[in-house]
Amino acid sequence: MIYDIIIVGAGPAGLSAGIYALRSGKSALILEAKAYGGQIINTPDIENYPGIKNISGFEFATGLYEQATSLGAEVKYEQVISIEDKGDIKIVGTEENLYECKAVILATGAKNRKLGLEKENELIGYGVSYCATCDGAFYKNKDVAVVGGGNTAIEDALFLTNYCNKVYVIHRRNQFRADPKDVDQLKEKENVEFVMNSTVEKILGDTIVEGIEVKDQNTKEKKTINVSGVFIAVGQEPDNTMFSNLVKLDDSGYIIAKEDCMTNVKGIYTAGDCRTKTVRQLTTAAADGAVAALAACSIID
Q1: Annotated catalytic residue: which of 4, 135, 143, 273?
Q2: Which domains does the chain have, with CATH numbers?
Q3: Is 135 in the active site?
Q4: Which pLDDT tens digit goes with each residue over 20-52?
């Protein structure tokens, strides 16, 4: 069988792509290495998706999955290990099978880079977050910490100052990598405290975050900072290495594509957090999925 479209990844972008492909009358195979939903499945509450006041990440992802499969999407849990461009036909290889299709959509997402601390994973959604715009409102009038020194960390801290009682910014160096104008703006906020040349050594709390232990890199002294939330903003890691001989990647490993979601290879598209973009949010992932699917459908007879 030759599928019209094979979608690599069953996160919000991939599942949205499947929905739009199927509604356009095309056949779609979605290949996912782990479980459907992507990172959003770990989010307890979603309150920033237009039209939905409140929903859990699991419910949202399940709704997308059920919608795609009810339309006829075929979902297989297989790790994609290769893609071969044969012109009008693409061959997608997994550890188990080879599949042929007319177009491919790469929607592999990106992983938040973690600190690698004990309790970090188990407290995600219970005080540990990687998205201030997603979860910041839950910490109104509370003390929180932002870990990182790049643009995302500073932007997160600025955002959180609108909700939180106090925002600690923890950075391992004595200077920020973020845009100076944003750093200057943050310095003007009265509810911000900078903890420079420091690293987070421990996340404190059993069932919810109660604080962090911070180590000064110069004096080696440690201190406890009581916070209800820890926002980790030390970058993301796309997993596009296996596609590097096929599509162009930027220096950080993201697939190069503009808002049209087209790569440099005809018939291969990309959607969601794995592509070069400014805003990586649930809404933009779903939008990418729709754009990529309709673009793919346009080249299929």
Answers
A1: 135
A2: 2-112+236-298 (3.50.50.60), 128-232 (3.50.50.60)
A3: yes
A4: 999 999 999 999 999 999 888 877 678 889 999
